[in-house]
Amino acid sequence: MRKLFTSIALLLILIPGFSVSPDEGIWIPLLIEKYNIKLMKEKGFKLSAEDIYSVNRACMKDAVVSFNGGCTAELISGEGLLITNHHCGYSLIQDHSSLEHDYLTDGFWAMSGKEELPNPGVTVTILKWMEDVTDKVLAGTSDDMAPAERERIISLNIENIQRKAVERTGYRASVKPFFMGNQYFLFVNETFRDVRLVGAPPSSIGKFGGDTDNWVWPRHTGDFSIFRVYAGKDNKPADYSPDNVPYKPAYYFPISLKGVKEGDFTMVFGYPGTTSEYVPSYHIDMVKNFVNPRLIEIRTRKIDIIDEAMNSDPLIRIQYSAKKAGISNAWKKWIGEIQGLERMKTISRKQEYEAAITKWISSDEARSKSYADILPSYKRIYDSLKIYTLVNNFTNEVLSGIESLNLSRNLRDLVSQTEKGSDPEAVNKLKDQLIAYSEQFFKDYNRETDRKLFVSMLQSYGETIEQEWLAPEYTRLKSSCNGDFASFSVKLYDKSVFTDQARFKDFIKGFNRSSVKKIKKDELYTLSQDIMAFISENVRPELARLNSEVQLLNKRYMKAQMEYESGRVFYPDANSTLRVAFGTVMGYYSRDAVYFKPVSTLKGIIEKDNPEIYDYDVPDKLKELYANKDFGRYAADGEVPVCFIANNHTTGGNSGSPVINSEGYLIGINFDRAWEGVASDMAFNPDQSRNISLDIRFALFIIDKFAGAGYLLNEMTIVE
User: Fold this and answer.
1) Which residues are catalytic?
2) Of 495, 513, 528, 705, which is most buried with the most CB atoms under 10 A?
């Protein structure tokens, strides 16, 4: 199998007429020299593959980091200065905010190292090296082996590979599957644990346009924030300490002021999260027509309630800004994704492909023996999988939508340990942890908002999920209150220990055996425990089994596709590992007679200004700078560029990724995708798939001219 895979992967010429854009793909940096560098150079790239990835010398990979496990960021100075998206740092900025110091509304700028704000728990991870370890992972396995035994051997092999890779290094290792388990790579990383907030523009810049403009082009959002990585005096990772010093990176990006124009080469280097480019039509149908429409409905309810609350009170706006952003981001993406999949006729195109590959399989006896059962098996499994997926995902949406219900779930261990009569010291430790957690929880909690969410979520749960999949405690509760969750919730929220900080803290401090009886009479606790138990016992085991079956089919189907299209260079799906995407700055036709140019400017911000709408209220200082044309060295053709688009293939996790020009200089920060092409996680549309990036000149303009923090530019390498 390994030899077959290698022979497929080494073919470098696309089959004639195959409908794959040359700019499509999320590529493995280790293999750029082998598969991509020739095309990259044809598009204008002037450097070598080793300038991108090398284990022998400092290179771009040393300046690209995974930011707190969900975004990308890049080093821009020899003093550990890091830039990422405003939305990637949003929850951290919110954590530091209060009515007295509202950094979301006013922005934050440390004017010296002493003013930089620590962020406990935040990490920055840098790749040291990667390696193809497929042969080592699959050693001792065969295709005709029982699946459980095969997975057992693979797991043991992976454990050994990871352990040996980091012995006596202080690094961490992980082995990830690629091409649905047909190939494996080892990643060895160094993780830093002292990351401090240096600067962030106000939300009126960093989140300009809010949810209205999210996933939309043209865009005018100054989506950036700045952090600094600190290390011990040996330049190695260390827990936060006032004695730590700025990290000295092996490489950091020089910054170009030359900007972009249509047709320019661009490269995005980052940590894309998850894509599903090679799944069958049954998967697309499940997502598009069955699961996501219902998730969109329940998130719409959440957003409406939170919006109303945020508009009523400045404190609630601070408390719920990050929460709402997290809810609405996927919500709007799902809406655009459904429209994009429909526009591209993705399901019917997949079905046509499946008919063609089925004909190819059936034309050969050996292929039929290996692959003929795959697509019929997919159909059988997805008929059940879509139901279990909906019940699991929708129930999670219900639980996550009620904050007090979530808080109650955290008491499970304390109740269990108290009932068992566990060591008092262990029980007290659990109490201390719960009290500490509650401090942060109630800081960003509003009881009335949560009560309204409680009512709406439980109503939606009963309206959407079939009776057989509803937790018994929910059914009992609904019956006891005659479905009037609104009236019931008023009494519940007045007395529950999970809706009031002082009540909760006192209850936990005095928690004992008699408290167990009391907590089991609190409907928030009993409801959360029953729903979780129901899902754990009746949904997740079968869901896991079905997904396991799908994964086994995926591996074989991926192998079949690569044999069928033996002249195509396949790129692997994203899996939160470091990747390269490259393309060209270009506009696109949104619809008939509507063409979007690839660059937006500060002029567009001024045109959108509306003081009556929070997300469009342009700061006076920015309007003053524009009126005076005080643009410094950051203007082009009399305007300050704000954002630009290109056809790089990106996805979630690429937020904050450096956008690099043909000379290897930083020209932008990736932060979004255009609405029309947002379905690119499952189907890349070369005509409309566009990534949206902040022009680095706008970030520098804000730092220098707006914030007066120009001292930060002194530690950067800026190329005029």
Assistant:
1) 87, 223, 655
2) 528
